[in-house]
């Protein structure tokens, strides 16, 4: 009986080590900034978008596409598209799928455009605010564009 318990404990320790080593291997497949992007996609897929779609009242809904803000039912109608994009990103970064290049960079380029135009189109801030935000988002956009080899290795 003691040997059975010992064997079960050894097996549990080995499986935990296997899990952590698998997680560590997964993290090493991507640079730190890409892991942060992956975590963001995971958060948006499993936490924020379900809240946004199913809990947030329609009157409070807002979605931004290319700098144009949609509100109410128009925003609610486009939320599933945002959700699908984040879910595809979460899966694509997890697997380092080749189809992620160039689409992750293309989507982020849309975000750069949106960040630049949003303050101008919605009277929320100055042109400088939009330029600074766009410049910040341009950094990971360029990094993803240049990371083609990482998605080919997968």
Q: What is the secondary structure topology, with strand pairs?
A:
Blueprint lengths: L1 H27 L3 H23 L7 E4 L2 E4 H24 L4 H22 L5 H19 L2 H6 L1
Antiparallel strand pairs: 1-2
Helix pairs in contact: 2-3, 4-5
Write out the strand line-up for the largest beta sheet, numbering strands in chain order.
Answer: 1-2
User: What can be said about the biggest beta sheet?
Assistant: 2 strands, antiparallel
Per the principal axes of the C-alpha atoms, what is the gross shape? Answer: globular
Instruction: Classify the beta-strand content into a percent band.
Output: 5-15%
Helix-residue proportion: over 70%
- Residue runs with pLDDT of under 50 for 5 or more positions: none
Structural class: mainly alpha
Describe the 3D structure.
- The chain is mainly alpha-helical.
- The protein folds into two domains: 29 residues; 123 residues, no CATH class.
- Helices cover 79% and strands 5% of the residues.
- It contains six helices and two strands; from the N terminus they run ααββαααα.
- Strands 1-2 form a two-stranded antiparallel ribbon.
- A hairpin with a 2-residue loop joins strand 1 and strand 2.
- Helix 2 runs antiparallel to helix 3.
- It is globular and about 50 Å long.
- 17% of the residues are buried.
- The mean pLDDT is 88.
């Amino acid at each position: 009986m003691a040997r059975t318990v010992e064997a079960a404990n050894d097996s549990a320790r080995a499986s935990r080590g296997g899990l952590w080593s698998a997680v560590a291997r997964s993290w090493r497949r991507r640079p730190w900034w890409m892991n942060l992007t992956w975590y963001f996609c995971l958060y948006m897929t499993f936490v924020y978008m379900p809240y946004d779609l199913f809990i947030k009242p329609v009157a409070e809904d807002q979605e931004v596409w290319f700098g144009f803000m949609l509100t109410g039912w128009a925003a609610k109608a486009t939320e599933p598209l945002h959700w699908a994009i984040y879910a595809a990103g979460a899966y694509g970064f997890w697997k380092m799928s080749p189809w992620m290049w160039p689409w992750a960079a293309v989507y982020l380029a849309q975000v750069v455009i949106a960040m630049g135009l949003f303050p101008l189109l919605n009277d929320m801030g100055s042109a400088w605010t939009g330029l600074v935000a766009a410049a910040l988002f341009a950094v990971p956009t360029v990094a993803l564009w240049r990371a083609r080899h990482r998605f080919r290795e997968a």
